[in-house]
Design brief:
The structure is a single chain. The protein is about 30% helix and about 20% strand. It has about 450 residues and is an alpha/beta fold. The structure holds guanosine-5'-diphosphate (2 copies). One guanosine-5'-diphosphate binds next to α1. Belongs to the TRAFAC class TrmE-Era-EngA-EngB-Septin-like GTPase superfamily. EngA (Der) GTPase family. It comes from Acetomicrobium mobile (strain ATCC BAA-54 / DSM 13181 / JCM 12221 / NGA) (Anaerobaculum mobile).
């Protein structure tokens, strides 16, 4: 599976069929790799696999619209797409032909150095094929007639798209490094923490190209260990386009997380833990990554109130109850509080995520559960029986339980088992996967 993907943005004026095309590509026929609950509802991007390559597809039409004139909003979306995307699908309504607004968008796109593919939509039947010729005058080489609604020619379009999507590249030299993604909402202090990390004189810093165009990774050697900070380009140089769309930062975070071993979730302590923070933490766990939380801007808390600090940490842990007690570090990029501790804790979580629990210990755990816990039943006297358990994977640790009937397992019991595993393996901040298999 891919480690990172290019971004492919669907753009075009209203009603040409962008959302229909997005849904067509995402929902049908293709494997969506990352389908995270909480995030799916208002999802406007998704990871798509096609012909052995993967990319993130973005529906720019799904952006929340402010009160500004429509053209400004479209212009902003285009500017953003140009900045963030590697490939752009420009959607045109074949029935309406090329309108002045299409030409305007095309003009901006021609000046970008992005690959642009024109999808002439609503070409519902072969007899409508002539509709596409008009679109060549926009000046782009690749023009495809499609019908998003009737599922025509979508695979052709995708073939062209992936021809321009970068191969997944695996960092050969840095495989021994602990890969860390620094994520969080805008303005929580990610860049400041990054700068504090590279500014420490005890750290040796070097840049290497990231896996996609325009991305830079930073390798830091600290106390003899290598840490690779993923896609730090955005942390060094802020986007030129300041706006309130958190969307791209979430997408960027997701791309970084996909490559990470450990994710450092930075939270602004003055804003406590927000829904968005919880969402990101949930994504980290869905992706099977280790999680470390930094409560940043600790210096802004009033001095001389240790109880306040304690209650804030307690609150954060409560909010992030599903993260197996992920470590929470209190940091200040300003005063450099606990900055180097970030390395130590990430290293610890990295190691835990790789841990293999000896089978003898696992089976002792099972014996205890079977002896001391009430096992779920079908209500008619038939109880779950666990024969044995084995760890099939690390990073994240994954376990298979062999049982008499997997249908007897309910959610609360599975949660209980996960909690036991977390205790036994000390998997704090590490997601644990559990599978059930029948054995006669
Ligand atoms: P968006 O504003 O660009 O996201 O456009 P939508 O995806 O919301 O589609 C606008 C309208 O065009 C909707 O009524 C769709 O049902 C319709 N539509 C989208 N794709 C096609 C298509 O391939 N053929 C036809 N005939 N209608 C389509
Ligand atoms: P990012 O958007 O998450 O990368 O956040 P930045 O690193 O750009 O920081 C946003 C703002 O918060 C800037 O004004 C920083 O100076 C400030 N900031 C970052 N970390 C701290 C901190 O630990 N303490 C205080 N007081 N301010 C901070």
């Amino acid at each position: 599976m891919g480690r990172n993907g290019d971004v492919v943005a669907i753009i075009g004026r209203a009603n040409v069929g962008k959302s229909t095309l997005f849904n067509r590509i995402v929902q049908k026929r293709l494997a969506i790799v990352d389908d995270i609950p909480g995030v799916t509802r208002d999802r406007i991007y998704a990871r798509v696999e096609w012909s052995g390559k993967s990319f993130y597809l973005v529906d720019t039409g799904g952006f929340p619209n402010d009160d500004e004139p429509l053209l400004d909003a479209v212009g902003r979306q285009i500017a953003r797409a140009i900045e963030e995307a590697n490939v752009i699908i420009l959607v045109i309504d074949g029935r309406e032909g090329i309108l002045p607004q299409d030409e305007k968008i095309a003009e901006i796109l021609r000046k970008s150095n992005r690959k642009v593919i024109v999808a002439v939509n609503k070409v519902d039947e072969p007899m409508h094929e002539h509709l596409i010729y008009d679109a060549y005058k926009l000046g782009f080489e690749d023009v495809v007639g499609v019908s998003a609604e009737h599922n025509r020619n979508i695979s052709n379009l995708l073939d062209i798209v992936v021809a321009h999507v970068d191969e997944e590249t695996v960092e050969e030299d840095e495989d021994d490094a602990i890969k860390i993604a620094i994520v969080g909402r805008p303005n929580v202090g990610k860049s400041s923490i990054f700068n504090a990390l590279i500014g420490e004189e005890r750290a040796i810093v070097s840049d290497i190209p990231g896996t996609t165009r325009d991305s830079i990774d930073t390798v830091i050697t600290y106390e003899g260990k290598k840490y690779l900070l993923i896609d730090t380009a955005g942390l060094r140089k802020k986007s030129r386009l300041k706006d309130d769309i958190e969307f791209y930062s979430l997408l960027r975070a997701e791309r970084s997380m996909d490559r990470a071993d450990v994710v450092l979730l930075v939270i602004d302590v003055t804003e406590a833990v927000t829904e968005q923070d919880k969402r990101i933490a949930g994504m980290v766990f869905e992706k099977g990554k280790g999680l470390v939380v930094a409560l940043n801007k600790w210096d802004l808390l009033p001095e001389g109130q240790p109880k306040l600090g304690d209650s804030i940490i307690k609150f954060a842990k409560e909010q992030l109850y599903f993260t197996n007690d992920a470590p929470v570090i209190t940091t200040s990029a300003l005063s450099k509080r606990n900055i180097l501790k970030i390395f130590d804790v990430c290293n610890e979580i990295y190691t835990l995520r790789q841990t293999r629990i000896p089978t003898s210990i696992l089976n002792r755990m099972v014996r205890d559960i079977v002896s001391f816990q009430r096992l779920p039943s079908d209500g008619k006297g038939r109880f779950l029986n666990i024969y044995y358990v084995t760890q099939v994977e690390t990073a994240p640790p994954s376990f298979v339980f062999f049982v008499n009937d997997q249908n007897l397992v309910d959610k609360p019991f599975e949660r209980k088992i996960i909690n036991e595993l977390v205790k036994v393996g000390n998997f704090r901040g590490v997601p644990v996967r559990v599978f059930w298999k029948n054995r006669r």
